[in-house]
Amino acid sequence: DLQLNYYAQSCPNAEQIVKQQVIKLYNKHGNTAISWLRNLFHDCMVKSCDASLLLRTINGIESEQESDRSFGMRNFKYVNTIKEALEKECPMTVSCADIVALSARDGVVMLGGPRIEMRTGRKDSKQSYLPEVEKTIPNHNDSTQSVLSRFRSIGIDTEGTVALLGAHSVGRVHCVNLVHRLYPTVDPTLDPDHAEYLKRRCPTPDPDPKAVLYSRNDLQTPMILDNNYYNNLLKHKGLLLVDQQLTSDPSTSPFVEKMAADNGYFHDQFARAILLLSENNPLTEDQGEIRKDCRYVNGD
Ligand code: HEM
Ligand SMILES: [Ca+2]
Ligand SMILES: [Ca+2]
């Protein structure tokens, strides 16, 4: 079972080492902290927080990273940096799944978000579940009700789901995920001035998917996990349809308004929901393994 400080005996410095690495990486590449947060969502939502996301395509394994839903994910190579630091101190002891969880927790702190007390003891999967990704991770233009039902299926309520989408207070969106709101006509739920700005960022209706054209989610505080996301939604400056629609669905709009007015309330709800997400269906003792390299299952 998951417990606080699971590695107290087996690797007493484990959590400290993850934190040190997250800080070091943040100081070199600030956006690694953003990646750790998105990794938690994409790993924990698919089956379990089991590092299934981190496996590469090889030997019959089809990586979840190859799904369209994983578009834009970055910095996977720096997970290995964290793992290597742990292997040096305690070989084969700390799971990649716990690295996903703890790095997200520490990344959130670097981004000015809440401190979250997380339990550990997750095991790593022996599979990556590529076909499951589209069944569990919503698409950027799904309806609010379909998004809510996916989160509800892993025990996260409406308030928690609205808070989790506040992760889009940091990071970026590539033009391929935006242009349908700009061309041929501008989505009427998008602020016209913001639409002009986005058209300058994304000048053509069919961007090359390999091109790096993108816009930042939150122009005011792009690197801070704050409630400015909700203020942007109220100003019709949400980038994805799933973002903007939170203001028009009567089941979510009251929470958007409350979170826009109160950053402390947003942080409390965000912390609560991240905890639920991070404890979705963990693998226990005999169901998984501790990978030596987060990219590959252990060889025999
Ligand atoms: C309805 C649910 C969600 C959908 C459809 C969704 C979709 C997306 C899309 C399309 C992008 C932009 C990818 C790109 O173009 O590069 C993105 C970025 C991001 N998402 Fe979500 N997301 C959802 C929920 C979440 C949740 C729950 C979290 C974390 C708790 C999260 C964290 C992030 C982060 C941090 C980024 C920025 C990544 C970066 O800049 O590298 N998202 N999301
Ligand atoms: Ca997983
Ligand atoms: Ca922000």
UniProtKB/TrEMBL annotation:
SUPFAM superfamilies: Heme-dependent peroxidases. The keyword Secreted applies. The record marks 38 as: Transition state stabilizer. InterPro entries: Haem_peroxidase, Haem_peroxidase_sf, Peroxidase_pln, Secretory_peroxidase. GO terms for biological process: hydrogen peroxide catabolic process; response to oxidative stress; rhythmic process. Its EC number is 1.11.1.7. Substrate binds at residue 138. Keywords: Biological rhythms, Calcium, Disulfide bond, Glycoprotein, Heme, Hydrogen peroxide, Iron, Metal-binding, Oxidoreductase, Peroxidase, Secreted, Signal. Disulfide bonds join 11-90, 44-49, 96-294, 175-202. The active site is at residue 42. Binds 2 calcium ions per subunit. Binds 1 heme b (iron(II)-protoporphyrin IX) group per subunit. One of its GO terms (cellular component) is extracellular region. GO terms for molecular function: heme binding; lactoperoxidase activity; metal ion binding. Removal of H(2)O(2), oxidation of toxic reductants, biosynthesis and degradation of lignin, suberization, auxin catabolism, response to environmental stresses such as wounding, pathogen attack and oxidative stress. These functions might be dependent on each isozyme/isoform in each plant tissue. Ca(2+) 2 binds at residues 218, 221, 226. This is Peroxidase. Residues 1-298 form the Plant heme peroxidase family profile domain. It is found in: Secreted. Heme b binds at residue 168. Belongs to the peroxidase family. Classical plant (class III) peroxidase subfamily. Ca(2+) 1 binds at residues 43, 46, 50, 52, 64. The keyword Signal applies. It comes from Hibiscus trionum. Its cofactor is Ca(2+); heme b. It catalyses: 2 a phenolic donor + H2O2 = 2 a phenolic radical donor + 2 H2O.
